[in-house]
Structure formats: structure tokens, C-alpha cells
From TrEMBL:
Keywords of this entry: Cytoplasm, Hydrolase, Protease, Thiol protease
CDD domains attached to this UniProt entry: Peptidase_C15
Naturally occurring in which organism (per UniProt): Mixta tenebrionis
Cited Pfam families: Peptidase_C15
Name of the coding gene: pcp
Molecular function terms, GO-annotated: pyroglutamyl-peptidase activity
Entry-linked NCBIfam families: PRK13197.1, pyro_pdase
Record-given protein name: Pyrrolidone-carboxylate peptidase
Subunit structure as annotated in this protein's UniProt entry: Homotetramer.
């Protein structure tokens, strides 16, 4: 069966929940465009997050991989354009590691662009009445670590699977502890992520029908 892998993170930085996982876990085993969505939680830890991601990619052989993470302070669903080859942590990860100015992949390219149809995803989410935008930075913490590592692995594969990263805002129950911070309801985030999967899969199907490129 054709599969989609969607990942999210465990809580970090003193939070009791992570909105990415609270939303992503609700998509587990959902059928979208003939594909079975498989949700997996990643540790919020440099190195371990990529090891877990790569193990799931090997086991599932997905045709689409979307990693999702928390971006406290952002008001909308943000689809990331680029992952950069640097770990530069403002705070320690959940293993207590805090790399500074270290490459994710030694001798790897400086950056990778997402292979998702990022603007089509943003437009589709907006049309549903959900705030969304393209983001030009995934930061330099574990989210960027996973995005870059994911795209590096996909670039080495011959099956041309697509992949990218989406950031989501705080949930309301988190935002009350951060006065002035925006939030978004879990059901709204779930809908946006399901739409992102649908648009990415339909774009891929359309390209195959016309024999077009996959990037």
C-alpha cells in the first residue's frame, strides 16, 4: 500500500504538550488520495531525531514525507521553503545537547529546498479560511535539523519521494501561559495538515499524468 509518513515532535522547552504531535497523531492511518497516512513521533534531540526518522522511512518506504513542528509565536501555518546545514541551538535539546555552529551533514550542501508544492499548499489552506504562509527559515534548532536531514536523505534516493516541513502555532492551552502569543485550535491544524497532504499528493499525481518533473 502507498504510504505517507508524517512526523511530529515530543514536547520540549518546558512545554507539557507539543501542538505538532497533538495534531499529527489524529491523522494516523487516515486514507488520503489512496495513501495510508502513518504518524510517528520524533524525539526533540539532535541526532536521535534523524535516526528515528530514517528508520521509519526505511520501514515504510513512503512516497511523501512531511515533518511538522511547533513554532511558538507564529500566528499561522507556515510551510518551510529551505533547510540549512547548521545546528545552532538557543536552548538545549531534550537530551541536554546544545550544539553551536555545527554542520548537520559534514561536507553536505549549504541548503536544500523543500520538494513540496509549498505555494499551492499555502493557497489551498488559505482558501479554507485558515491563516497560512511560506516561511523562509526553519530556524537552526531540531526542526531545521530534521528538515535538512530529511531532504538530504531524499536527494540520495532514486524514487523521487517528496518531502518538506511545516510549522504550526501554539495550541490555546499553551498560549495562555505565554501572554500575547497567538494560537490555533487543534482541529484547525489537523485540517490544514490533511489539506497539505492532499495537495502534495494530487500535485504529484498530476505531474505523473503529464510526464512532468517532480520538483
Amino acid at each position: 500500500m502507498r504510504t505517507v509518513l508524517i512526523t511530529a515532535f515530543e514536547p520540549f522547552g518546558g512545554e507539557q504538550i507539543n501542538p505538532s504531535w497533538e495534531a499529527v497523531r489524529q491523522l494516523h492511518e487516515r486514507m488520503v488520495c489512496g495513501c495510508k497516512v502513518m504518524a510517528r513521533q520524533l524525539p526533540c534531540a539532535f541526532g536521535d531525531a534523524l535516526s528515528a526518522l530514517y528508520a521509519e522511512m526505511e520501514a515504510l518506504q513512503p512516497e511523501l514525507v512531511i515533518a511538522v513542528g511547533q513554532a511558538g509565536g507564529r500566528a499561522d501555518i507556515t510551510v518551510e521553503r529551505i533547510g540549512i546545514n547548521i545546528n545552532d541551538a538557543r536552548i538545549a535539546d531534550n537530551n541536554g545537547n546544545q550544539p553551536i555552529d555545527e554542520p548537520i551533514i559534514p561536507d553536505g550542501p549549504a541548503a536544500y529546498f523543500a520538494t513540496l508544492p509549498i505555494k499551492a499548499i499555502v493557497d489551498g489552506i488559505r482558501e479554507a479560511g485558515i491563516p497560512a504562509s511560506v516561511s523562509q527559515t526553519a530556524g537552526t534548532y531540531v526542526c531545521n535539523h530534521v528538515m535538512y536531514g530529511l531532504l538530504h536523505r531524499l536527494a540520495q534516493q532514486s524514487d523521487k519521494a517528496r518531502g518538506g516541513f511545516i510549522h504550526v502555532p501554539y495550541l490555546p492551552e499553551q498560549a495562555v501561559k505565554h501572554p500575547g502569543s497567538p494560537s490555533m485550535a487543534a482541529q484547525t491544524i489537523i485540517l490544514a495538515l490533511e489539506m497539505a497532504i492532499t495537495i502534495a499528493l494530487r500535485t504529484e499525481q498530476d505531474l505523473r499524468l503529464v510526464g512532468g518533473a517532480t520538483h
